[in-house]
Request: fold
Amino acid sequence: MISYEPLGPSSIEATGLDPVLLQQLVVKGMFVENLETTNQLTEEIKLPSKIIGDILQDLITKQYIEAAGMSGATGASGGFGNLRYTLTRSGKSFASEALTQSQYFGPAPVPLATFQAQVRAQAIGDERVAPEDIDESFSDIVVPDEFKKRLGPAVNSGMSILIYGPAGNGKTTVAEKVAKIYESHVYIPYAIEVNGAIIKVYDPSVHEAMAHDWDGIERRAVIRSRKDERFVACKRPVIITGGELNMEMLDLKFNEISKFYEAPLHIKALNGTFIIDDFGRQMVSPEELLNRWIVPLQSRVDYLKLHSGKSFQIPFDELVIFSTNLSPDDLMDPAFLRRIPYKLETKDPSPEAFRAIFDYVASKEGLDLTDEIFDYTVSQITEVAGKPLAAYQPKFIVDQIKAACKYEGEMLSFSKRYVEDALRNLYVQDSSYVGQVGMS
Reply:
């Protein structure tokens, strides 16, 4: 497994942060969270205990804190780590003033330059996805070999893909499987610092942290002393957004009360996959969205702006997948289509592919799909209902049959009657259709 582990800082200067910002972080922890010891502050701020100790010494020199005896607990850092500190009157004033500037307290942020370098170091395009990886990922669904052959290079590019075609043929499923195919983990910062502003990046609702594999206390101590704890080891992120997407979600979100920022969705997706499902049906128009991303998709950098007006650059490293059942020509002009290097169409399945999908879905439920039931189903869909075959139909029908058998207390089995009932729920029917698909 590839690793891009960031090394932790060894001094205040090596953090890349203003010492005053670090001092503010410590006193806010003492003032708001009632933290008293080096061990407690180290755990919350995610900097080595030596650096926390140096910050505390600076605060003592400025008479913002003072020693208040030993704590009752004994920790890995020994006696010095358990010396209690308390804020002086001046320290409380300093903490109050710091809170008016920003109420952020938590892991120390990572400087913008450090974050930029980390994103580049763990670029998604640098990870190789082999044909066998594609085959394994898609082993539980039926996908034409030609489609997988074209998908492989697109995934390895780490750039952008347009998946289009009729509804119900697995576009979203394909996008989600692509997103989860990567094996290496990446490092996501809890927060970054830009011109004194703090931007939260790590989001446990979208970032899946890797489980620690500590091998005893000694190994843990060695690893913690080497790794920059301001980063979280995560699986490559996957963010899926649909009709709810609007332009505000692609900009920094500034909280007027807490006075720090939340990173937008596509920044949380860096080094991973950003899926725009049902493209063309968002709250934002396709033109607005495409105009917003025309530069990032081409130049692989994005620009964000602080509320002060200061803008900064972020590497735009992520696999962007547009999924739509609308015509691409109706959604975007030729100039933008050129900026999406891979365009893959999902087509209605052939009868042979439809049979393979139906067989697979049925067998998972212990059902035996006979030629009679299969032919009858195809006839009802294509001839009676006048609809095309679609990849989603077999599972829909099987789920309907399961529910019907459960209701009637019958063993799970196929029958024409169950198929007919399922098809009644598959499409909205007019009276003439209901007459043709009757009970038998």
Summary: The chain has three domains: 18-107, 117-345, 351-436. Residues 351-436 form one domain.
